[in-house]
Design a protein that fits this description.
The complex is a heterodimer of chains A (383) and B (209).
Chain A: H1 2-36, E1 47-49, E2 52-54, H2 60-71, H3 82-99, E3 109-110, H4 121-124, H5 126-130, E4 132-133, H6 144-164, H7 168-199, H8 204-213, H9 217-220, H10 222-235, H11 247-250, H12 260-285, E5 294-295, E6 298-303, E7 306-311, H13 314-342, H14 348-378
Antiparallel strand pairs in A: 1-2, 3-4, 5-6, 6-7
Helix pairs in contact in A: 1-2, 1-12, 1-13, 2-12, 3-6, 3-12, 6-7, 7-10, 7-14, 10-12, 10-14, 12-13
Chain B: H1 15-19, H2 21-44, E1 80-81, H3 96-100, E2 106-111, E3 125-132, H4 141-145, E4 151-152, E5 169-170, H5 172-177, H6 204-207
Antiparallel strand pairs in B: 1-4, 2-3, 3-5
Classes of the chains: A mainly alpha (383), B alpha+beta (209).
Chain lengths: 383, 209
Amino acid sequence: MLFWISTTLKVLVAIGFLAQVAAILLWVERKQSAMMQNRIGPNRATIKIGRFEIRAAGLVHSIADGIKMVWKADWEPTGGDHLLYRLAPIIAIVPALCLCAVIPFGPTVFIDHARDLYDPAWAADAATAARSVPLQIANLDVGVLFVFAVAGAGVIGAALAGWSSDNKFSLMGGLRAASQMVSYEVAMGISLVGAMMIFQTVRLDEMVTWQMQHCWGIFVQPVAFVLFCTAAIAETKRVPFDTPEGESELVAGYFTEYAGLKMAMFASGEFVEVCVSSALITTIFLGGWQFPFVQLTGFEFHYFGINISWHWAHFIVVAVSFLSFCLKCVFLIFMQLQVRWTLPRFRYDQIMKLGWRMLLPAALLNVLVTGTVLLFLNSPSAH
Amino acid sequence: MPGKTKVLKKPARTLADQSYLLEVMKGLGTTLKHFFQGTGQMVSGNVPDAVKYPLAEGIATISYPEEKRPYAERWRGVHRLTHRDDGSPRCVACLCCSTACPAQCIYIKPGEYPEGDKRRGYERYPVEFVIDELRCIFCGFCVEACPCDAIRMDTGTHMTAFDEKSAFIYDKDKLMSIVSQHGTQKSENPRHEPGEASHPGIDRLRGGH
């Protein structure tokens, strides 16, 4: 019973949050780019209630955009494949939403022991474990592999949109999206092999636990971090990797023929991807929900001969962990938007060269080096 | 004689440039600097006045139409017809402006002052003075041509965008109601009416006829 209630709640919160993410990130992107370019940014949309005017520093623009999207004419091209045309936006956004299912955003909550100090025996105790809520929607054994499988499905949406629109710009955009995403999928997957070898698991919650016990993934796999970030930004199909929708060449690429809410689904799908990829990078490389020097029992600092132990109640640890996960995600989203407004767009051949000639060999080399180091560390003679 | 040729050396691409990563970091540093500068200004409210200090560091937006960049004194705005001291137009209906106008947008219907008026015989007055502001190219030739300083473009305002064409036809009353950017309807140049002592030329009393 608890399982069903908690899972439903988690799903609703996650989907509800990700549905709003597009509106918020749209505002963040506009305002952030304005600040970077010495502008004020959006501030004109106003809600008037009597004498009061609500501008909310431009947030109202997102609401205005939403209203506009709803009322736009839902035009469809007369040619093309109508079923696929309508299916494509759904296929584009659903995988991005699914990805958040496997990301742990906090430690397991033991409801009966909210005010007690954490004890590892809780998890072993059947009665307590039954009344515990893992802060992760689905704890899959395949973890990271599920992420790759589902993220790879996102390309189908873009490709179908391009194919079914009966438009050459759309088709070119769809082809570019497909080839780009497939190319970077390879580098993305292989860049994580080193991390999997070190963590010795593909389950995302165990990865976080390993990082809590040892150190963050970015310190053991710095190269993989850079490669994975690059590939993840490329997967979101945003600047500087936005040739699939390069305005100057392809009008709007694979969603040239889309209007209204269907277009909004593509646009918000990109923002959801930004959000989810940030959460994924956080989980694999930045210690997930772990706050620096905070263990499940509280603040623990045992380095350089200094020993500080500050025990916290279980619910405080959970709250701190959840907040730390959110903070890391917000930081990574901020950096992704910063990259998007800093770098100019790559040419299409440059994207392909970067993917196949730079990222892929670097990822393979990373696997080789990681494997060699691990072999020496784990060999009997080293002990 | 051939000029001196200065051969610029093409900057070498180092490994650091080629790897792209360091350059990306540099770029991010620049944009981050601007981001924090702009955000700091917005949050603290210390946004520099872009109207007064257009080259100041930081946010440089002018919130038009609440704030406007001031135009130069000689900037050519919408026309106005200047007034005499008694409120009548300075225009003497000489048709110089409509002759000079390359767009042919000025129409003047001249009229004689009635018998007994002391200006009769010296000058005429515009019964109608119409400018089609849609045809006008704002070249300022009319202002240059005017011998009486009767038409000026020192209003400092744009032509308003109206919904219908007829609104762009400015008649005499409309043109005379427009003020200069200093708020006056007159001209700084003095006007000497015939019969006044300051009148420099020959008039009916001094001409001897």
